[in-house]
Design goal:
The complex is a heterodimer of chains A (623) and B (269).
Chain A: E1 12-18, H1 24-34, H2 42-53, H3 67-72, E2 79-85, E3 88-94, H4 102-109, E4 114-120, H5 127-138, E5 144-149, H6 158-173, E6 181-184, H7 207-213, E7 226-235, E8 238-247, E9 250-251, E10 255-259, E11 263-271, E12 280-281, E13 286-291, E14 302-304, E15 311-322, E16 328-329, E17 333-338, E18 341-354, E19 368-369, E20 373-387, E21 398-403, E22 406-413, H8 438-445, E23 450-455, H9 462-475, E24 480-484, H10 485-490, H11 500-519, E25 523-527, H12 533-545, E26 549-556, H13 559-565, H14 570-575, E27 597-600, H15 606-621
Parallel strand pairs in A: 1-3, 1-4, 4-5, 5-6, 23-25, 23-26, 24-25, 26-27
Antiparallel strand pairs in A: 2-3, 7-8, 7-14, 8-13, 9-12, 10-11, 10-14, 11-13, 15-20, 15-22, 16-19, 17-18, 17-21, 18-20, 21-22
Chain B: H1 3-21, E1 25-28, H2 33-45, E2 54-57, H3 64-77, E3 81-84, H4 87-91, H5 103-122, E4 126-128, E5 145-148, E6 176-179, H6 187-197, E7 211-212, E8 225-226, H7 232-241, H8 259-265
Parallel strand pairs in B: 1-2, 1-4, 2-3, 4-6
Antiparallel strand pairs in B: 5-6, 7-8
Helix pairs in contact in B: 1-2, 2-6, 6-7
Classes of the chains: A alpha/beta (623), B alpha/beta (269).
The structure holds guanosine-5'-triphosphate and magnesium ion.
């Protein structure tokens, strides 16, 4: 008996994109026909469909299968069809070029590993060609070849081809794309599709040869483990944690951490049906796990190894594209879906919103992202999110934005600091858990607990503002307190000086104390210079790990103003050399780049600043 | 991971997402090869269980082998089965060919209509269907999570965006979602998988007297074709070589251009 041939190899997934009418579907049709991919009778049925409409034969009808597409000669939705290329199968994803169907182009292109970007020789580069090129970059498609179509319309001119190539190289280069091939074709005559033909003696490339030269994507290098939990199934008294290995590898016996809540556990077994199989699972596998410890797990959790943690934050820096019919406004409330996590969010800042079909704009910030536009954003999340930078671990570095129940856009994460695991010196620690829930505390107090972290130069007004806000919230019946830097240094932190290591520890203790109070339901205002970004980020993580809300408030006043105020006469002493390492004088202050709230105490009075802060805190801690 | 492994993992992911998002989920089960492969995927996804009922639309024109096979599997595996039938049309013989209905009209009456009625009666907010992109042109444009309107209609011009494994699942009251875990599989992949997993399929797929079924439908509209393949490996080998389309034996597709799209737009799978 002959041995069975190997099962089908993974096909290359390739998207065909470019502006409307530039010949994408026609080229796809030609390729299918000339490679003998089509089933018997298919071309004849298209011929009949064209005859019925009284039009010339259209290769495009092979993938433009919808009546509306054929009637208007336009692709509406991406079609995916397998091309039997010599040596291997290729899934061709024929994307629509029309602006109105950009969301359908993205739906198709997002599943591709490589792209053909088409540009018609007679029309040249269009706004929509640029948009598609921009999206290829954002979707992480770096393997791109350019095909100049309809060469018959320009008499197969080498000059036209060269000019379009020169222009294209600049345009694509600006987007970070470097095509691996440039081919001229006429899908009408067939020149350049599967054979070079005599029309273009100046080239010997063909589209088919270009496609077959495009090697399948190299397997992702062994990256850090990210296991995304889809669900927990109870079976025969066991809890099966079902999900997919998005990167790395997980094995029975592994020590793992459950994010975002920073819980340690051990993988007891890998489960599959009908047999559990190998006690290890790699990238892409949909499996289930059991854990040795009785820890709580639910959908949305992410598992990592302790040595390579993801980032956890309530802020997300990202590049997004927007495909809803209405603009995305600064301040808009959306939901972020990343992996199986879903978190409400507010658009906290919009930088460089633009229409990728046009030249890049100059202005650095905007009030809204137009439909089919793109932007750099900071999203303020209403709960902690687990993520990675997109170029580090793609699956945890991209997300969609929901506006109501609809997918309005997507984005990639551009910044991520891995969560720091604080070392525990003592072994044999067992956390105890109380039976009073956060919800019960919220009901009792009428608001949720939170850490509000005021940072700024000495004399900027942190303590004054904190005390004013405390008084106002107290008057409203809130449970509220202030942790003031100076006061902490008298007690909890009395053993610490101002050397860098002491400053770090000073902030860690303040953050831990604030977290304990916030977990008890208190609104904690921390007034601390906290000059380093890294320390403030650490404070944020500590609060988030405790399940508490955290907001950074930049109490801002220019150094000159603070120095002039000098309520404690400290600047005078620092200038006189009596105090060393004084922030702003001979020690740095790193301004927050992404504070939730900025209060300019040199511009607004104490009353107004207090009011602003109170309103924001009330909103954030609402029951 | 092999290609079949990735296809399997993707289908499992989709099935688990569906089970999470929908309150009342069912799976359309035509008894064909895709349905059988899908049932295997369901049991993989849920570690041996089939956590939702199967829905079979019985046109009464299915070969008896199929119904016997169905009932035996239900018994052996303890499956929950819901059968939908258009009794009035069947009683009145308002069908093809007896009742002067065209083939496409008959599909509407015996499949689309009882499907709509069954989904409504059961209050399903989603049903899983084993369609694949390579079957025909409109399915090539489908979504994993594809919304159907209040009248079960498919608005093919306004499909929701779907990327990075994120699916839109909420389309408002009265609508439901068709979940398509097999979208990226080809006919060949299905048979390779049946071979690998040792999945049992109806005997009609295997050649008898030099002919076999490629796609199982109602007997008046589904033809057999010439084949010597009597085992799964032989079917796999045959499919690697053939240029005959899978649905070539389905007479209703050929009735007029766009007939199949119209059928699907009105709620057919
Ligand atoms: N002369 C000439 N016409 C072509 C060629 N390729 C395509 N066309 C014509 O250009 C028109 C548009 O072609 P399509 O293939 O539908 O274009 P498309 O890029 O798929 O369009 P959308 O999908 O709607 O964006 C059709 O009428 C084709 O016949 C070519 O190489 N030469
Ligand atoms: Mg097209």
């Amino acid at each position: 008996m002959p041995s069975a041939p190997p099962a089908s190899a993974a096909p290359l997934r390739l998207v065909i994109c470019g502006s409307v009418d530039h010949g994408k579907s026609t080229l796809v049709g030609r390729l299918l026909a000339e490679t003998g991919t089509l089933p018997e009778g298919k071309v004849e049925s298209v011929r009949a469909a064209c005859a019925r409409r009284g039009v010339d034969f259209e290769w495009a009808f092979l993938t433009d299968a919808l009546q509306a597409e054929r009637d208007q000669n336009v692709t509406i939705d991406s079609a995916q069809i397998v091309l039997k290329a010599p040596g291997r199968d290729i899934v061709l994803i024929d994307a629509p070029g029309h602006e109105e169907f950009l969301r359908n182009m993205i739906t198709g292109a997002a599943t591709a590993e490589a792209a053909l970007l088409l540009v018609a020789a007679d029309e040249g580069w269009r706004a929509q060609s640029r948009r598609h090129a921009f999206l290829l970059g954002l979707l992480g498609l770096r393997r791109v070849a350019v095909v100049v179509t309809k060469m018959d319309r320009v008499d197969y001119s080498a000059q036209v081809f060269r000019d379009l190539r020169a222009e294209g190289e600049v345009l694509l280069g600006a987007l970070g794309l470097e095509p691996f091939a440039w081919v001229g074709v006429s899908a009408r005559s067939g020149a350049g599709v599967t054979s070079a033909g005599p029309e273009m003696p100046w080239q010997n490339a063909t589209v088919l040869a270009t496609l077959t030269a495009c090697a399948p994507g190299a397997a992702a290098a062994e990256a850090a483990l990210r296991f995304v939990v889809q669900d927990v199934y109870r079976q025969d008294g066991r809890r099966l944690v079902a999900g997919r290995v998005e990167s790395g590898r997980v094995s029975a016996g592994d020590a793992i951490v459950l994010w975002p809540f920073h819980k340690d556990a051990t993988v007891a077994s890998i489960e599959r049906w009908p047999q559990p199989g190998a006690q290890t699972a790699g990238v892409g596998e949909s499996i289930a796990l059991t854990l040795a410890e009785p820890v709580f797990v639910e959908r949305g959790y992410v598992l990592s190894h302790p040595s390579a943690p993801p980032a956890v934050s309530n802020q997300l820096h990202a590049s997004i594209f927007w495909i809803a019919p209405t603009p995305l406004a600064l301040g808009a409330e959306v939901r972020v879906k990343l992996g199986t996590q879903q978190v409400a969010a507010r658009v906290a800042s919009l930088g460089r919103a633009f229409d990728p079909g046009r030249e890049m704009p100059e202005q650095a910030s905007a009030a809204e992202v137009p439909p089919n536009g793109a932007a750099e954003v900071v999203l303020q999340l209403h709960a902690p999110l687990v993520f990675d930078r997109h170029d580090h671990i793609a699956a945890l570095g991209r997300f969609v934005l929901l506006l109501g129940a609809r997918i309005g856009g997507g984005g990639i994460v551009t910044q991520a600091e891995p969560a720091v695991r604080l070392a525990t010196k003592s072994a044999n620690i067992t956390e105890s858990a109380g039976s009073i829930t956060a919800a019960e505390r919220t009901r009792r107090h009428g608001h949720r607990g939170a850490v509000v972290w005021l940072t700024g130069l000495s004399g900027a007004g942190k303590s004054t503002l904190a005390r004013g806000v405390e008084r106002e919230l107290f008057a409203r019946g809130s449970l509220v307190t202030v942790l003031d830097g100076d006061n902490l240094r008298r007690g909890l932190n009395s053993d610490l000086g101002f050397a860098p290591a002491d400053r770090v520890e000073n902030i860690r203790r303040a953050a831990e104390a604030a977290r304990l109070l916030a977990e008890a339901g208190c609104i904690v205002l921390v007034a601390l210079i906290s000059p380093y970004r890294a320390d403030r980020a650490a404070a944020r993580r500590i609060a988030l790990e405790g399940g508490c809300d955290f907001a950074e408030v930049f109490v801002r006043a220019p150094l000159a103003v603070c120095e002039q105020r000098d309520p404690k006469q400290l600047y005078r002493k620092a200038r006189a050399g009596l105090i060393k390492q004084f922030t702003g004088i001979d020690a740095p202050y790193e301004e927050p780049e992404d504070a939730e709230i900025v209060v300019r105490t040199d511009e607004v009075g104490v009353g107004e600043a207090t009011e602003l802060l109170v309103a924001e805190i009330v909103r954030r801690t609402r029951a | 991971m092999t290609h079949l492994d990735s296809l399997e993992a993707e289908s499992i992911y989709v099935l688990r997402e569906a089970a999470h998002h929908f309150q009342k989920l069912g799976m359309l089960w035509s008894i064909g090869k895709d349905s059988c492969a899908m049932l295997n995927l369901v049991r993989k996804a849920f570690l041996g269980r089939v956590p939702f009922p199967l829905v079979h639309i019985d046109t009464s024109f299915k070969p008896p082998e199929m119904i016997e096979f169905r009932d035996r599997l239900v018994r052996e595996w303890g499956l929950q089965l819901i059968v939908g039938r258009n009794e009035p049309a069947l009683t009145a013989a308002d069908t093809f060919p007896a009742g002067r209905r065209t083939r496409v009209e008959c599909c509407g009456l015996l499949k689309t209509e009882p499907l709509r009625a069954t989904l409504a009666a059961q209050g399903f907010d989603a049903v899983i269907a084993g369609i694949r992109r390579d079957e025909e042109g409109t399915r090539a444009k489908e979504r994993f999570f594809s919304p159907r309107g209040v009248a079960n209609d498919w608005n093919v011009k306004q499909q929701p965006p779907e990327f990075w494994g994120q699916f839109q699942t909420d389309f408002g009251p009265g609508t439901h979602v068709r979940v398509h875990p097999l979208l990226h599989w080809t006919e060949l992949n299905i048979w390779e998988y049946i071979e690998r997993e040792g999945i049992e399929v109806v005997s009609l797929y295997f050649a008898k007297d030099g002919r076999r079924h490629r796609s199982l439908g109602c007997w008046p509209c589904t033809g057999t074709f010439e084949s010597q393949a009597t085992t799964v490996p032989e079917i796999v080998a045959e499919l690697r070589a053939t240029r005959l389309s899978e649905r070539a034996g389905r007479a209703q597709d050929a009735e007029s251009e766009g007939a199949f799209e119209a059928l699907r737009a009105s709620g057919y799978m």
